[in-house]
């Protein structure tokens, strides 16, 4: 069974906010768009808002679904709902101690993301 995940592409002007997955996590050492598993009784947009508050300390004010991607890793299958987050309150930070950074869209390809994110990064380079 695939796990459902909501992730936020937090944008401000030409920059995107990304976080480093710690080594002990699935796809550890890769950069990610902050987010996490959709819990029972939640829809992906609710999960997104909850996760962005938990992991980055922001309130999501405006988000729209950007892409849905299903990906089979060797060890698990994921269904990822990637949202563009264009308006938010608060200053995103690594609330759980994770390393974070703002990166220019055009520099996204220099960061290593999980395999499932490849089409997302490609699409963001074109926007
Ligand atoms: N958050 C996030 N997860 C991603 C991305 N790309 C991707 O393949 N994933 C995968 O989706 C799953 C998301 O899980 P997560 O570890 O963020 O979930 P979570 O925040 O609920 O964490 P927890 O299990 O530590 O409570 C992981 O298997 C992760 O490897 C991404 O861009 N962002
Ligand atoms: Mg997470």
UniProtKB/TrEMBL annotation:
8-oxo-dGTP binds at residues 21, 26, 32-35, 117. Its EC number is 3.6.1.55. Pfam families: NUDIX_4. The keyword Chaperone does not apply. Transmembrane segments: none annotated. Gene3D superfamilies: Nucleoside Triphosphate Pyrophosphohydrolase. Mg(2+) binds at residues 35, 55. This is 8-oxo-dGTP diphosphatase. It catalyses: 8-oxo-GTP + H2O = 8-oxo-GMP + diphosphate + H(+); 8-oxo-dGTP + H2O = 8-oxo-dGMP + diphosphate + H(+). Keywords: DNA damage, DNA repair, DNA replication, Hydrolase, Magnesium, Metal-binding, Mutator protein. Residues 1-127 form the Nudix hydrolase domain. GO terms for molecular function: 8-oxo-7,8-dihydrodeoxyguanosine triphosphate pyrophosphatase activity; 8-oxo-7,8-dihydroguanosine triphosphate pyrophosphatase activity; 8-oxo-dGDP phosphatase activity; 8-oxo-GDP phosphatase activity; metal ion binding. GO terms for biological process: DNA repair; DNA replication. Belongs to the Nudix hydrolase family. InterPro entries: Mutator_MutT, MutT-like, MutY_C, Nudix_hydrolase, NUDIX_hydrolase-like_dom_sf, NUDIX_hydrolase_CS, NUDIX_hydrolase_dom. It comes from Marinomonas gallaica. Its cofactor is Mg(2+). Coiled coil: none annotated. NCBIfam families: mutt. PROSITE patterns: NUDIX (PS51462), NUDIX_BOX (PS00893).
